[in-house]
Design the sequence.
């Protein structure tokens, strides 16, 4: 299989066929992000021949497990949904040719990748299997989005996710706790919930910002232009997010950046999630949580 650099996938894609169609990120400008720093290029599109070779190889492997059927394929790379419609369609057709039993195709997507597709193109991509996109929206706090160079604003999140809904493409939105900085987290969480409450994400996930040595954000901290929130403050912010969400959706904070993992369905499990968060805030010390973050291996 052609895999380049570290392959990132969400935990819920563990049983999906991982197919490399791009490597790196077209944007590569978010100040906190170090995910694709190990690649010598910013973004690379895989040749269709390589993709077909990988599908042939995967088919050969899966045939060894008699009763195993590939139900979902996850396209790797930071934002394969940026590829042109025709390219995504060709990839979808290739997957169907080698794995006719495959039901859906997922990938990471940036909000700006959706903007590039017409409504008709989105519908046609849904028809060939594209579904369950993972979108790192990070926040709907416009000031934080601008400062971190995300390349879009909260209104874009609202507009583009609504377009996905119209095309019947499901998606999961990821929030980055503490992206707004010290003293601003609860406000950012409230604003994010305001936008999410107008949408129907299949899941609202949360990761916690961890600042790594090779990030541009560390330079901002050194210059005094941005201040990191305390660890307990981050949990207050997460509490505000859970409390303010009114959607019927899954909520999950399962990645390693969360010292304590949380999962539940809203609104059914809201009280339970809030009481766990209250216990963390009342019972854990800033030092314990800070030690956890300090010892977190580099992502
Ligand atoms: S956070 Fe996502 S969009 Fe931003 S640079 Fe990293 S991979 Fe690219």
Sequence:
């Amino acid at each position: 299989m052609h895999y380049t650099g570290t392959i990132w996938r969400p935990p819920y894609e563990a049983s999906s066929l991982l197919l490399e169609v791009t490597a790196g990120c077209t944007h590569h400008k978010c100040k906190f992000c170090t995910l694709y720093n190990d690649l010598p290029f910013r973004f690379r599109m895989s040749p269709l021949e390589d993709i077909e070779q990988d599908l042939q190889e995967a088919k050969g492997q899966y045939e060894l497990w008699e009763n195993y059927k590939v139900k979902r394929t996850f396209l790797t790379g930071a934002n394969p949904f940026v590829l042109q419609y025709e390219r995504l369609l060709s990839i979808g057709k290739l997957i169907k040719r080698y794995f006719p039993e495959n039901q859906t195709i997922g990938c990471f997507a940036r909000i700006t990748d959706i903007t590039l597709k017409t409504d008709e193109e989105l519908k046609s991509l849904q028809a060939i299997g594209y579904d369950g996109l993972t979108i790192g929206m990070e926040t709907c706090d416009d000031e934080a989005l601008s400062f971190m160079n995300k390349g879009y604003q909260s209104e874009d999140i609202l507009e583009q996710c609504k377009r996905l809904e119209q095309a019947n493409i499901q998606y999961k939105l990821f929030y980055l706790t503490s992206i707004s900085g010290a003293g601003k987290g609860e406000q950012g969480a409230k604003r994010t919930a305001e936008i999410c409450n107008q949408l129907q994400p299949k899941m609202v996930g949360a990761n916690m910002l961890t600042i790594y040595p090779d990030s541009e954000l560390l330079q901002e901290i050194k210059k005094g232009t941005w201040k990191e929130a305390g660890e307990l403050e981050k949990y207050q912010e997460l509490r505000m997010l859970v409390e303010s969400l009114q959607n019927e959706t899954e909520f999950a904070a399962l990645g390693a950046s969360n010292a304590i993992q949380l999962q539940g369905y809203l609104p059914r499990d809201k009280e339970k999630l809030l009481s766990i968060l209250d216990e963390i805030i009342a019972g854990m010390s800033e030092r314990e949580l800070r030690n956890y973050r300090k010892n977190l291996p580099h992502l």
